C-alpha cells in the first residue's frame, strides 16, 4: 500500500512538473508553479506549496511558461495566448505554429496584466476603517472614527470616493462632531495616460468649528508622477469655488486654487504601506489665509484582507472665526478591511 501511494505521488508530481511554469532563482533553485503576473520589477508566482510568492525581478534568472500568457508591450501592443521564456535581458515569445520572437526586457510592460488594463471591464478597490475607544472610571469618554475609500477604474476613467467621520463624547457631552466627503472624477488622455483632467466635489461639516457646511467644487488637471510598486505619487492643480456656511460667523464664498498631492510607498517592507495625502486651498482674495489638510499614516496587513493603521491628521484654516482654533490635530489607530 505504501509503495502504491508513493508511486501515485511521484506520478502526480511529474504531471505537475510537465504542465507547470518554472522560475529559476539567482541562487540556482527552481520553483515550479504558475506565473500569475509580472511588471514594475516584481514577479508574482503561484506555487502548490507556498501560495503566491512575490519576488523581485532582480532575484530571478529566468521564467519559462508552459501555459499561455498575455504580454503587454511598452508601446501598448498586446500579445495573447503566448508562451514565453524570460531572462534578465530578453523575453522570447512563441505561439504554436509561429516562429519565436525575442524582445529586450525593456520593451515589455506587463505579463498577464489585470483585465481592466487590457480595456476589459472595471477594477474596484477600496477599504473601510474604524477606530473605537471607550473609557470608564474617573471620566467617561467614547470615541468613534469611521472612514471609507472606493476607487472605480478602467483604462480612461477613474471615480474616487472618500469619507471620514469623527464623533467623540466626554462625560455624556459631545465634544467632537465632524465629517467630510471627497468625490472626484478623472479622465486619462489616450496618447499620454500619465496625464488626466477631471472635476471634484467636497462637502465638510464641523460642529465645533462653527462650520455648518463647506462646499468645494471645480475642475482640475493631474499627473501620475510615479506609478511603480515602490512608489505611487500623483499631483493635481485646479480652480475651485468654495462656499462656507457658518452657524455664528458670517457666511463666506470665494474662488481659489487647489493643490493636491498623494503618495504611497512600500519602502519599509514587510507588506506595510507608508502613505501621505496633502491639499491646500488658496483664496484668491486672501492669499495669506490658506486652508490645508495633511494626512500621514502607516498601514500594516493582518489576515484575510484586514489591516491596521496608525494615522496623523493635521488641519489648518487660516480664515477660521476668532473663537475657533486655526489648527486641529488628530491621531488614530484603526482596524480596516481592504479589497
Could you describe the 3D structure shown?
By secondary structure, the chain is mainly beta. The chain folds into two domains: 2-113, no CATH class; 123-338, Nucleoside-specific channel-forming protein, Tsx-like (Outer membrane phospholipase (ompla), Chain C, Beta Barrel). Helix content is 5%, strand content 67%. The chain has one helix and 22 strands. The strands form two sheets. It has a twelve-stranded antiparallel barrel. The two termini are 46 Å apart. The model is unreliable at 1-18 (pLDDT under 50).
Helices and strands in order:
Elements: H1 2-19, E1 21-25, E2 30-39, E3 42-47, E4 51-56, E5 60-64, E6 69-73, E7 78-87, E8 90-94, E9 101-104, E10 108-111, E11 123-135, E12 141-153, E13 157-170, E14 173-188, E15 195-206, E16 211-227, E17 231-246, E18 252-265, E19 273-283, E20 286-301, E21 306-317, E22 327-338
Antiparallel strand pairs: 1-2, 1-5, 2-3, 2-10, 3-4, 5-7, 6-7, 6-10, 7-8, 8-9, 11-12, 11-22, 12-13, 13-14, 14-15, 15-16, 16-17, 17-18, 18-19, 19-20, 20-21, 21-22
Keywords summarizing the entry:
339 residues; mainly beta; Outer membrane phospholipase (ompla), Chain C; 2 domains; twelve-stranded antiparallel beta barrel; six-stranded antiparallel barrel; 1 helix; 22 strands; disordered N terminus
